[in-house]
Amino acid sequence: MKRRYTLALLSLGAITAVSAQTLTDGSTSMIPGQSFTSHRAPYLAPGPAGPNQTWDFSGVPSDSVVTISYVVAGSTPEYASFPSSTAALDAGGGAYTYFKSNSSGIELMGVVGGGAVAPYQNSERIMQYPCNFNSQWVDAFSANWIANGFPVERTGTVSGFADAYGTLIMPYGNVDNVLRVRTTEIYSDSTILNIDYDFDTYWYYKPGVHNAVVAIFDQTVTIFGTPSTTQNMYWLDASDVGIDEALRNSIGVEVYPNPANTEVSVVFGADGSKGLTLEVVDLTGKVIVQQDLGSRAPGIQKETFDVSALAAGLYSVRITDGLGGQGIKRLVVE
Hints:
By secondary structure, this protein is mainly beta.
């Protein structure tokens, strides 16, 4: 029996290694209610492409700290202009960026800010799922809105390429199983004057962290033929990244099948802490299902629950322990 168990674990490990850098809706998309501490820093070169890379950002500074907060799109004042959005990035001061995510990717649905409401009539696919090494996509997008009394027409394309995977060396330790996705956005705004944009961004994702761990920006805006370039980056605080060097308060969680319509299994890591609970939370933050799991022996645990009575839609499965540890995984109920 012990021999079979060991072989089973080895097989599972081999499968995990192959798919470790695969990004999906459940592992990567933004979750309403989650916030991240983002350190802003000067531009650093993104480093080489290819497999098994090591990117050394151990000396990256922190010039300032900003909170990245995602909220329920339906809770925002201008939600009626973005009815299919599943999450909104709250930029403060009434400014929001709206996103729609599902099993095929993440789409930018539009923005609100500066007195303008700008919904995209043809959304911009900023991520394609599943996304793994060498994944590529190209998408055209467009939008029309009124700004300061003038009509604005935006047209352009975005291309994405998962060009590398490997390990990030951060000031707080190593982040393994990282997939780097490079996006290039080329678009124009036509109004009383023409503005051209050429944005090149490197996103470093770790599956299970629902925001890029590092993002490096190289952005050029051209007005009246005069280009202006801005280069900078951000990196997430250690408390937001699920690695042993940084945390004790992150619980690894997997959910399957996903999407589901009957029974769901939740697999999670336990370290012997007491007070484990399982919750299913809807997009408004309401706890729909709650189970007291008590204490579990250290190791991989499995719990099942029935979702057949839940309305179709998007939920979050949350595991917490008595010491404040938490793990969250998105669940789609059909």
